[in-house]
Amino acid sequence: MNYKTDEFIDLSPSPASLMESLRDIGYSMQTAVADILDNSITAKASEINMRFSWNSGEPWLGIIDNGHGMSREELVAAMRFGSLSPLADRAADDLGRFGLGMKTASFSQCRHLTVFSKKAGVATCCEWDLDIISSNDNSKWLLHVLSEEECSKKKHLLELSDTYLEQAKSGTIVLWEKIDRIDRLVSTSQQEASLNSLIADTRHHLELVFHRYLAPDTGKKLKIFLNGNQLEAFDPFNSKHMTTIELPHECFECDGQKISVQPFVLPHHNKIGKEQYQLYAGKEGYVQNQGFYVYRNKRLIIKGTWFRLIKKAELTKLVRVRVDIPNTLDHLWKIDVKKSNASPPESIRTELKRIISKIECSGKRVYEQRGQRLKSAIKTPAWERRAAGDQVFYEINRKHPLVKQLVDNVGSEQAIMFSNLLKMFEGSFPVDLFFSDFASAPEKLQRPGFDEEQLGRVLEDYIEFWGLDEESTKEQISELLQVDPFSLNQGATLKLLSQKGIVQ
Ligand SMILES: Nc1ncnc2c1ncn2[C@@H]1O[C@H](COP(=O)(O)OP(=O)(O)O)[C@@H](O)[C@H]1O
Ligand SMILES: [Mg+2]
Question: Whose CA is nearest to atom 11 of ligand 1?
Fold first, then answer.
């Protein structure tokens, strides 16, 4: 073979094919919009306006901020793919990472990107259009910098700049047109509905991802509007609720940088209303949404994972752990371009594992405490919980008056049969089914109860057995109300007793 040395061939990537492939790196509408907002926050914006319009099937989305904006040189540099290397030092509050976000996020959703920016009162406007790039084969990355006249012809841009940036000295508009991530095979009205619901999902996503900017513990709130409606922070820990348990805060260092860990146990369903309980469950439910919530510079990047350190168990489903990391550890956490994924290095995994084992116990305690409370409220329960060693049994209380009465009044053979029957009920309780129902929707689980007539008949037996009558004392009545099944039907029991003249 005849090798030539010192030969360099220009292999610049073809803009058309590279741009088309970059569209599919896995952004969703939600993560793409969040990436644009990152830039606005890094540019110190205090207000961000998003405008979305279906525009009779030609939808567009504009994101306008009042941040420090870009000069002509800065904007031109920012439009370059890979404008700032991931190896470059970044300011501590920079939410950027690869110098790709604005471009790749935008093109994941649309084919025409316009960025208009004002700095010190001077405006510049640039655009990339995928169709133009694909149609010219000169394989050059030719950015279109618009003249003032060209700019004034762009209807939607003009409307946005007039509304939001006319008076401002600085600010930026990112405008997506030719939004094409829509299923064109369905009817126009379905397309409109599905895009609207995507935008609504995006709103919820932003309310979660940026909740610590929308409602910070200290300092100024960031205001974000979507078509004029202000976004509200969604704190996944419900940390302001009285019955949310804040477990001890932990701190450790990695590479000389501080990592802060704050575990929470969310309120149990009997502590907050049904609606609130479901709200915090989220779309995926409590079991899926338990785990670590990692924030990079207070911006949520990953949620609801234990990084495979433990399983997502029913018993820990109310546990969510806030982890704060700085942007200086990006290389160790392997933050991806979409900032929707990260995985901790081994040294951090070890620390997290240590913290989890402490937390796991607390999550379980919430359920155990409930068990204790239930037990103490009812003096003579029909069911008893018996712990032996590390095992727990649920058994029917043989000392319950109704059980005793029956056993005492039948022959010994029938008593044995009855005892076997009870054992069968105890031994065949469908624990797995019950547990899965209880874990997924505890509020839907109902005990088959007595109706009034049946309760009346059981009560008759009691009245006779205990010799209750008009003369019975308050203590006797309150004793009765702590016996199953009356303890669970106190209202109905009192009503029946008063009909009989036993209570007034
Ligand atoms: N809204 C904005 N305001 C001011 N500067 C911006 C804005 N959006 C983008 N920029 C500039 O463009 C650069 C490139 O943005 P981007 O492609 O998202 O990459 P990254 O955020 O990773 O640096 C940013 O580093 C920033 O300097
Ligand atoms: Mg960015």
Answer: 78
User: Of all protein residues, whose CA lies closest to atom 12 belonging to ligand 1?
Assistant: 78
Q: Are residues 147 and 276 in the same domain?
A: no
Residue 19 Cα, ligand 2 centroid: separation in angstroms? 17
Q: Which of 89-93, 257-261, 403-407 has the lowest mean pLDDT?
A: 89-93
More confidently predicted of 488 and 232: 232
Ligand 1 contacts CB of residue 299 (under 6 A)? no
- CATH number of residue 261's parent domain: 3.30.230
Region for 178 from its dihedrals, namely left if φ exceeds 0, alpha if ψ lies in -120 to 50, beta otherwise:
left
Q: Are residues 307 and 197 in the same domain?
A: no
State which ligand 1 atom lies nearest to the alpha carbon of 67. Answer: 3
- Given a contact cutoff of 8 angstroms between Cβ atoms, the answer to whether 6 and 187 are in contact is no
Amino acid, single-letter form, for residue 407: V
Residues 6 or more apart whose CB falls under 8 angstroms from that of 456 comprise 496
- Higher-confidence position of 4 and 204: 204
pLDDT digits (tens, 9 = 90+) for 93-111: 676 667 788 999 999 999 9
Q: Last residue of some domain: 198, 230, 262?
A: 230
Residues 343 and 411 placed together within one structural domain of the fold: no
- 362 shares its domain with 295: yes
Domain assignment present for residue 311? The answer is yes
Number of separate domains in the chain: 4
239 occurs within a structural domain: no
CA of 102 to the centre of ligand 2 (A): 5
| Model confidence, pTM | 0.73
CB environment 46-75: b (16+ within 10 A), e (fewer) = ebbbbbbebeeeebbbbbbbbbbbbeeeeb
Range of the domain at 473: 452-499
CA of 369 to the centre of ligand 2 (A): 47
In this structure, the answer to whether residues 41 and 73 fall within a common structural domain is: yes
Residue 375 Cα to ligand 2 midpoint, Å, equals 55
Cα 464 from Cα 454, distance rounded (Å):
16
**Residue 50 sits in the same domain as residue 190:** yes
pLDDT tens across 354-372, in order?
A: 998 887 766 555 555 444 4
Residue that the structure tokens 């058994």 belong to: 395
- Considering the domain architecture, whether residues 55 and 124 belong to the same structural domain is answered as yes
> Are 140 and 266 contained in the same domain?
no
